[in-house]
Every structure is written in C-alpha cells, then in structure tokens.
Write a structure and sequence with these properties.
Elements: H1 7-13, H2 24-51, H3 59-79, H4 89-107, H5 116-150
Helix pairs in contact: 1-5, 2-3, 3-4, 3-5, 4-5
Length: 151
C-alpha cells in the first residue's frame, strides 16, 4: 500500500516542486520568439508579398493572428504569478477574446477588417500554444516522476 505521507507522493501532489513547469527564462524566450516572428511578418514579409504580388496561400494575411495568442499567453504568464483561469483555459479565453474582436470587426467599422482567414489563423495560434504548453507540462511531469523514483 502507498503511504500518502511519503516524500515522493507529497512532492508529486504538492505541485511538482522538483522541476517547475516552465521557468521565466523559457517564457521570455517564447515571448521573444513569437513577437519577433510577428514583427518580421508585419514589417517585412507581408509588404514584400503584397508589393511583388506573390501567392503565398494567405500566410501573409493570417501570420500575425497565428503568433498573437502564443505571444500574449507567454507574456501574461511571464509577468503574472498564476493563470487567470488555468493553464489551458487561458488559451481558450484569449482565443475567445480575439475571435470576438474579429467577429465584431465585421459589424463595427473602425475595429479592424474582417477576414475569415484570420479566424483560421487564430485557431492555428491557439493550437500551437496548446501544444507547446501540453508537451512542456508532460515533459516536466515525466522528469519529476523519474527524479522522485531515484530519491
């Protein structure tokens, strides 16, 4: 029978104190990567594609929406001590907010320009964020279990 007071069980149930899920340096790296990609797409790639009339299958149109959710997610988690709703629910919250703004831009002039491709870009960005967080969380959990067994 497993003793719930054993150090191994306590360290795993208290929140995996052995290896934090994601360090600030790693979050900062993700913020820099996604904001750099967004800056490149909006400042260089999109104008180049439009000025040379190159068909890039809509990447220039949806690129900023793809990197917006990961950039905002990791930036908020960098400056905040805890998520708003939860690590996965925050991704859904940011996605819902950006989708709302996109749909409102269809009805209200001045908010932006509605483009159905942007909605696809929002969902791609949310999926990228989810996959990064999911794989990183599973990796740290796996490492914690292996470290706990060795003690």
């Amino acid at each position: 029978m497993i003793n719930p007071q054993s150090p191994t069980i306590v360290s795993l149930t208290v929140g995996c104190n052995l290896i934090p899920a994601m360090k600030k340096a790693e979050k900062l790296l993700y913020v820099i990567i996604f904001y750099s990609i967004g800056l490149f797409l909006s400042s260089f790639y999109r104008p180049y594609i439009y000025s040379n009339e190159i068909n890039d299958f809509g990447i220039a149109d949806i690129g900023n929406n793809v990197v917006f959710i990961p950039g905002v997610y990791f930036l908020y988690n960098l400056v905040s001590k805890k998520p708003i709703l939860g690590i996965y629910k925050d991704i859904a919250l940011y996605t819902f907010f950006l989708l709302t703004v996109e749909v409102l831009s269809f009805y209200i002039n001045g908010i932006g320009t509605f483009d159905p491709k942007d909605i696809l870009g929002i969902f791609i960005g949310a999926a990228i964020t989810y996959l990064i967080v999911r794989f990183r969380t599973e990796y740290s959990t796996h490492l914690n279990k292996n470290l706990a067994r060795k003690k």
